Amino acid sequence: MLSVAPPSFLPAMKATADNHFAPFFLGYLCRRRTMASMEPAQLTTAVVSIVNTSRIILGYVQNQTKRCRHEDDFDEDKDTDVPESTGCGNWDIMAAVGLVDTVERQFWAWQTSTGLWDCIVLQVWDDSQWLRNFRMCMATFLERCELLSPALKLRNTKMRAALTVEKQVAIALWKLATPDCYRSVRNQFGVGKSTMGTALIQVANTITDVLLSRVVTLGNVQVIVDGFAAMGFPNCGGGIDGTHIPMLAPDHLANQYVNHKGYFSMVLQALVDHKGRFTDINVGWPGKVHDARIFRNSGCSSSCKKGLASKTKKLLLGMLKCQ
After folding, report:
1. Looking at 104, 134, 149, which one is the last position of a domain?
2. Of 6, 18, 21, whose CA–CA distance to 94 is shortest?
């Protein structure tokens, strides 16, 4: 391709904020002088390039007013070295004619596999495998997911599809039912570690807000008493015990959380019926506090004292008697 000097009138044109198209026309008029020496294939390519560029310019002119009114809608997905005075609306045009270099931003993510959840857990596992891994059968799992769906359902984004409610609940139950670390659980379900942690916290909070009052209830006390009587425990309204949940040392009053076994913990006290179903829970007391004190300050103890649990008989809860 021959190099030809621009026409004499072109130096008078300046690329300023009021004359955004000057760089484009400078290049275009210079290239016109070289078309005569082009090969047919090169000439065809140049014509197609000019036509495409003209379409871009036409689209720009038609949308100029709209762009001025909506400056926030400008596409910021391109990084260039063009100064602000050039005008943001001309970047596409200048990039099309080759006057500036652009770098397209790309989104990326680690390659993961969801085969275990999609192809094995949902399609192959029977109720015995569900019970071993999730502590519930599949029918119960789907029922709980339906109750949690209004609070956990997420919307898809342009970058990726949102996690389904079933997958969020499965991630949380798997972590709670097994001693696996975050890295192991995220590999099982093909999600990121931060995504796995977020799903765990959201599901736990939603279960507390939505399901706790529906699932953990005292129910019919007389049925429970009759059930324990059939097992050889007359006048028994439930079995109660506490468990210590290990935790990191808190910043305030850390010595109060050291239990009798020598590690930091928080106490969970639970009451179950004759079928092993939870009817009351109390969690949050420091590990140093005795089980009897926790029970005396629980809602279940208050109910027994007020006669809400048993009005006519002496009710025996585990090893504690309440009149």
Report:
1. 104
2. 21
